[in-house]
Structures are given as structure tokens and as C-alpha cells.
């Protein structure tokens, strides 16, 4: 057993967010377990691991221990044990004024919890709204932000997939924090649940969060955000800045990089008469495609998958292609009022009595549950009588 003890102070957090505790593994160790003990409940110390081959996993503040073996690993971590120099990575997220004492124990052996839960019965999918195809393309409903046991979520990948199918979604991006350990399981769950599961990673730091979409490997969250943008682009993925106005997760990164997508509608937009999300997009990234995300973690404490719903006009099942082309709309849920572009027109569904508004000052009260009117360029949205946003349509 290797035992490492450290005391961290606010000065340590100011000097460096991430601290590295080295240890060695002998040849043919086969498995090892790391346990973190923190002496204060008001401290938050994130936990991760690097090995001789680089990144091995991350659990943030969601776990106090992990196990890696030759062929399995705790959710959030990658299997494979190599002899040589390893590092426990600690992230100093919250350090109280008196400081915090941590103890890290590394032992050989151990057995991780399963990274993939048992298959679940596929729920009945509810009927979808009557959206017409456009030039051979079709509208798909989905959610671009959710978490599983591979980071700080409570549910297995199968469970979140079942929630999404029950909501009537066609796709779901699984975006666990700072890890890609879930990626290798997505094809299996997708095939048995009947929903497209998109590989994602929520690149997460105290200065802001961004979703990297696509089967593009791990994005190093310790780099500056501009590096995230270039790495994702170079690998053929897409990146979205998440909940840019969200409490202590607000976007604080400077720089010239601008995201492909902007999570304009997050489930934490509790009062939709508050116009800051739309104003922020115009000020920060007017060219970014607006998307929405539930940020689902667990039933009863977050919005369920699909609330809000992101609609993407896709060529076949190419959701990322539709996002890249900017063909999106956002509704409060799968059956909520919806505004989309169909060729040169707006089509509003379930929006009787709502106001259609655009950035150039155009306003029209809609009469009927299925209304078609000539489209105008730029972002458009639906408002209720209290000026609350009920739907968003990309420009």
C-alpha cells in the first residue's frame, strides 16, 4: 500500500487548480484501487488519474475511490494497467480558509463496479409531431446534454437512454464530465434501446463548461478554452459553450475562439421572461447555432432528458451534420409549442395565441395550432403573454 498525505490551503488553490501525486505500479500488478479521504465536508476535491499512457479517467467530486484493472474500470475511467509511473490528479475546487487535509491510499488489486448496467426494456415511444420533410431531410428530436454514472449522474447509460425514448426523443448526447469512458459503450446501448446516442464530453473547469461532440477522443480540460475549440475542430467534432450564465458554472474564458454551438436554452432557465440568454448569444457568439440541453443527472433533482428539446433537420441520421449546418429549433419539451423553418416559411405548431418575434423587430400573434407564415432572416422565437420564451428557431 502507498499512502500520500497532503494539506491544501486557499493559497495552493490560487497557485494551481490541479495537483499531482505520483506513485509507481509494479509489473503485472493487474489491478489497483485509489481511495481519497477528505477531512472537511465543506471542501470539494476532484479526483482523477493519469498513467504512463496518459489520461486514465476522471470522477471530479462525484467519487472518493476508483479501481482500474487490465480489462475493466470504475465508470469514468479506462481499463488497462501498465507498470511504471502513475499520478493521482486532485482538483482543488473548493478549499475552506483553514485548509483541508487529504489522504490518498493506493493498493494493488480490487474489483470495479460495472461500467455498463443491465439492459432495460425499451419504453413505448410516444407519437411525434407532424413535421414535414425538407428536401429529403427530416426533423429529429433530441437532447444534447446529459450525465450518467460515468461522472456525476445517478443512472446507467441504459437508464438515461430509456428516459429519452420514453420522452419521444430520436437522439441523446451523453456528455459526462472530463471523461470519455462511456463512449465505448454507446453503440451497444444504442442498438438495444433504439435511440441514437451521440458521444460527448463536458469539458469542465471552474471557469466554464463546454460540450465536445463526436467520436473524437478525450479533450484535455486543463488547457485553455481556445485550445479546446481548435482540438475539437481539428478532430472533426463540434463544440458548444454550456449554460454560459449558470451560477458558478458561468463562462469566464477570454480569447478569440467562438463555439460552433451555444446552449442558449438550459434547463436552469427557470424564468423565461429573463431575456439574458438570447442577449448573451447576440453579444458573445451571434454566429453560434442555438441548442438546448436538460443537463440531466438524476430523476427528481434535474430536468428529465428532452426538457428542453433540440430539433435538428438532418440528412438521414446525421445529427452532427445538421447541427454544423445550423438547422435547429428548441422547444420546452417534445410536445411543447414549436417554431421551425420549412424552406422560406416559418411553421409554428401548438402555438395558438403566442407571439412570433424576430431580432429585427417583427412581431405577429399566431392564430391556430398549425400556422405557416413567410420566414424572416435571423433568430426567431415564440413568446407568451408574459413575454416568456416558448420556442426558439435558428436563423
Q: What count of domains describes the coordinates? A: 2
Helix and strand sequence: EHEEEEEEEEHEHEEHEEHEEHEEEEEEEE
Provide the structure class.
mainly beta
CATH superfamily of the largest domain: Metal-dependent hydrolases
Low-confidence stretches: none
Number of strands: 24
What is the percentage of strand-forming residues? 35-45%
Largest β-sheet summary: 13 strands, mixed
Broad shape: elongated
Query: What is the average per-residue confidence, as pLDDT, rounded to a whole number?
Result: 96
Number of continuous helical runs: 6
- What is CATH's topology name of the largest domain? TIM Barrel
- The separation of the N and C termini measures 59 Å
- Spatial ordering of strands, largest sheet: 15-14-13-12-11-10-9-16-17-24-23-20-21
Q: What is the CATH-assigned architecture of the largest domain? A: Alpha-Beta Barrel
Radius of gyration: 22 Å
Question: Your description of this structure?
Answer:
It is a single chain. This protein is mainly β. It folds into 2 domains: 107 residues, Jelly Rolls; 199 residues, TIM Barrel, CATH 3.20.20. The protein is built from 6 helices and 24 strands. The strands form 4 sheets. Strands 15-14-13-12-11-10-9-16-17-24-23-20-21 form a 13-stranded mixed beta sheet. Strands 1-8-3-6 form a 4-stranded antiparallel beta sheet. A hairpin with a 4-residue loop joins strand 20 and strand 21. Helix 2 packs parallel to helix 3. The termini are far apart. The mean pLDDT is 96.
Amino acid at each position: 500500500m502507498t499512502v500520500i498525505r497532503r494539506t491544501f490551503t486557499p493559497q495552493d488553490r490560487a497557485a494551481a487548480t490541479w495537483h499531482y501525486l505520483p506513485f509507481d505500479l509494479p509489473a503485472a500488478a493487474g489491478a489497483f484501487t485509489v481511495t481519497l479521504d477528505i477531512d472537511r465536508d465543506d471542501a470539494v476535491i476532484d479526483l482523477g488519474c493519469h498513467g504512463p499512457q496518459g489520461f486514465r479517467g476522471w470522477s471530479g467530486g462525484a467519487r472518493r475511490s476508483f479501481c482500474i484493472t487490465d480489462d475493466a474500470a470504475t465508470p469514468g475511467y479506462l481499463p488497462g494497467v501498465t507498470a511504471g509511473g502513475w499520478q493521482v490528479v486532485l482538483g482543488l475546487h473548493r478549499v475552506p480558509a483553514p485548509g483541508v487535509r487529504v489522504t490518498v491510499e493506493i493498493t494493488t488489486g480490487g474489483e470495479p463496479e460495472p461500467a455498463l448496467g443491465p439492459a432495460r426494456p425499451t419504453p413505448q415511444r410516444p407519437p411525434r409531431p407532424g413535421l414535414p420533410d425538407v428536401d429529403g431531410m427530416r426533423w429529429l428530436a433530441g437532447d444534447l446534454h446529459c450525465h450518467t454514472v460515468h461522472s456525476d449522474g445517478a443512472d446507467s447509460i441504459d437508464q438515461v437512454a430509456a428516459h429519452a425514448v420514453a420522452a419521444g426523443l430520436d437522439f441523446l448526447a451523453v456528455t459526462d464530465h472530463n471523461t470519455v469512458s462511456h463512449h465505448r459503450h454507446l453503440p451497444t446501448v444504442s442498438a438495444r434501446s433504439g435511440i441514437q446516442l451521440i458521444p460527448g464530453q463536458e469539458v469542465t473547469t471552474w471557469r466554464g463548461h463546454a460540450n465536445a461532440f463526436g467520436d473524437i477522443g478525450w479533450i484535455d480540460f486543463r488547457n485553455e478554452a481556445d485550445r479546446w475549440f481548435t482540438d475539437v475542430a481539428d478532430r472533426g467534432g463540434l463544440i458548444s459553450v454550456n449554460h454560459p450564465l449558470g451560477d458558478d458554472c458561468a463562462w469566464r474564458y477570454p480569447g478569440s475562439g467562438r463555439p460552433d454551438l451555444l446552449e442558449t436554452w438550459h434547463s436552469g432557465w427557470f424564468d423565461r421572461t429573463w431575456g439574458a440568454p438570447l442577449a448573451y448569444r447576440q453579444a458573445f457568439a451571434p454566429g453560434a447555432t442555438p441548442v438546448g440541453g436538460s443537463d440531466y443527472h438524476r430523476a427528481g433533482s434535474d430536468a428529465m432528458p428532452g426538457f428542453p428539446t433540440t430539433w435538428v433537420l438532418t440528412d438521414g441520421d446525421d445529427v452532427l451534420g445538421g447541427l454544423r449546418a445550423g438547422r435547429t429549433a428548441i422547444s420546452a419539451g417534445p410536445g411543447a409549442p414549436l417554431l421551425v423553418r420549412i424552406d422560406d416559411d416559418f411553421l409554428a405548431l401548438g402555438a395558438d395565441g403566442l407571439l412570433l418575434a424576430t431580432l429585427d423587430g417583427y412581431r405577429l400573434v399566431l392564430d391556430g395550432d398549425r400556422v405557416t407564415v413567410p420566414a424572416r432572416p435571423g433568430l426567431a422565437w415564440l413568446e407568451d403573454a408574459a413575454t416568456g420564451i416558448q420556442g426558439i428557431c435558428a436563423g
